[in-house]
Specification:
Length: 191
């Protein structure tokens, strides 16, 4: 199963989606250690997602595999891999038009990436109601009249109160946006 999971990029780049899907599905039926199983579920989810026929229910199949991988990586405390899976779930949700949930998964991925200075992720990406997807440093972090942290989309002016995040995660996302706008020379988050 370890070899099959490692071949995910080969199958993806060469376009051998179905071969990869079949092989990974067979190996996953055999069981295996949690880290290898998480990687195989991730690889299978990505291959299904990249070759999806949504009329055949592939969206649900891809999401199921990715969520299984996410659960295992969280249990193992694998923050970087957790961030990677969150990004893929966010992309899948975005592609099928589930904007609110896509935004939520992409932000969670960004929070994990920011906490661990992981630059392999989407680097603080966001998706706005206007359909704009971009780096969070493009959004203006301010405190609203009630003293709450909000982010404003530069395209449409949408105000995101970050209420769908925990207070700690919302502050982390807002602070990171402010830090990036202030630049690396400033270290304080006055506000």
């Amino acid at each position: 199963m370890r070899l099959a999971a490692a071949l995910e990029r080969f199958w993806w780049f060469r376009g051998y989606y179905m071969e990869g899907r079949v092989q990974l599905g067979e190996f996953l039926r055999l069981g295996g250690a949690a880290p290898v199983r998480a990687k195989a579920l991730y690889a299978l989810g990505v291959l299904i997602y990249r070759s999806a026929d949504y009329s055949a229910g592939d969206q649900g199949a891809a999401l199921s595999r990715l969520e299984g991988s996410l659960e295992i990586y969280r249990e193992l405390g694998e923050e970087r891999r957790t961030a990677t899976v969150l990004r893929e779930i966010g992309r899948l949700r975005f592609e099928v038009g589930d904007w609110e949930r896509a935004r939520s998964f992409l932000y969670l991925e960004s929070v994990e990436a920011a906490k661990h200075d992981y630059t392999g992720g989407s680097a603080m990406r966001e998706v706005c109601f206007c359909g704009r997807a971009g780096k969070i440093e493009d959004r203006q972090p301010i405190l609203d009249s009630d003293g709450r942290w909000v982010l404003i989309c530069p395209e449409c002016g949408h105000v995101d109160h970050l209420t769908w995040l925990s207070e700690e995660a919302g502050l982390l996302v807002w602070s990171e946006a402010r830090h990036r706008q202030e630049g690396p020379s400033r270290q304080s988050y006055a506000g």
